[in-house]
Specification:
CATH class: Alpha Beta
Largest sheet: 6 strands, parallel
Helix content: 25-40%
CATH topology: Rossmann fold
Strand order of the largest sheet: 4-3-5-6-7-8
Oligomer: single chain
Amino acid sequence: MVTPSGLRRNEIPKLSKRFKNDGDARKPDYRIAMANPWLNPEWQPPASSRTTIVMVHGAIVDGYETGLLRKRLRQLGYRTRLFQYRSMMRGLDFNVARLVDFIRETEGDIVHVVSHSMGGVLMRRVFEEMPDPRPGRLIAIASPLLDCWVGHRYQRLHSRVGPALIGQTVRDHITNPPGSVWQGGRDFGVIAGTYPFGVGRFFPSLPKPNDGVVLLTETQLQGIADHISYHINHFGLLLSKRCAAQIARFLATGAFEHVVTPTASAAR
C-alpha cells in the first residue's frame, strides 16, 4: 500500500510521534511524520552541540540543485553550508584544497559532510588525506568513488571537445582513479541510484545498473559503514523523501535502514 508520502508501508523508517501545539495540549500528528519521513525527532542533532552540515555539489552544476535537500535538513534542526567550486576550469587537487579550508572555517562542534556526484570524490580525498578533527559523518549520493565510465566515454568523443565537456576536475579523477577501499576514519555512507536516466543514456553501451550518469559498481567503495540503493535517477536522489530520511537517519545513527522483504516461502 502506498502512503501519501509516496512511500510504501514497509519502506517508511520507524518514526517517533510528531507533536503539534494545541493550546497547552500536545497531540501526536502522524500526518506530519508520514508526509515528511525525515522529520523524526530521534534524528535531530544534539541540542547540546552546534551541528553543521557541509553540502558539496557535483561537477558542472553550481549546487542550487541541492536546495530542497538542504531545506529538509534545516527543518530537522541542522545548520547547512554549501561549498561551491569550479569543476570545469579547476583541477581536483585545487578544489580538494579549497574544500579543506572551507570545512576548517565552518563553525560547529560536529561537522557532517553530505555530497552529491563528483562532490563525493572531493569529500573522500579530504577525509582520507587531510581530515577535520571534529566528529561527524560522511554521505556520498550517486558519487563515482571508484571511477567514472561516463567521463571516460565523453573524453573519447573528440580529442578537444570531449575533455572540454567533462571539465578539469573530472579529467583528473579518471586519469588517476583512487583505490577501492576507504582509508578514512569517519563513518561513511553511500546512497546510489539504479534508474537509468541521465547524460549517460547517450551511450547505448552504458553498463547496467546505473543512475543515468554513475554506475552502481562505481559507488561500491569497500570498507565503508553502509551502502544502499534506490531505483531513482542521478538527480532524483536529491529530491527523494526516502533519501532525505535515510540521510537524516545515517547522520544520527551511522547506519541506513534496510527493508527486508520476506520471501514467499518464509511467509508461509
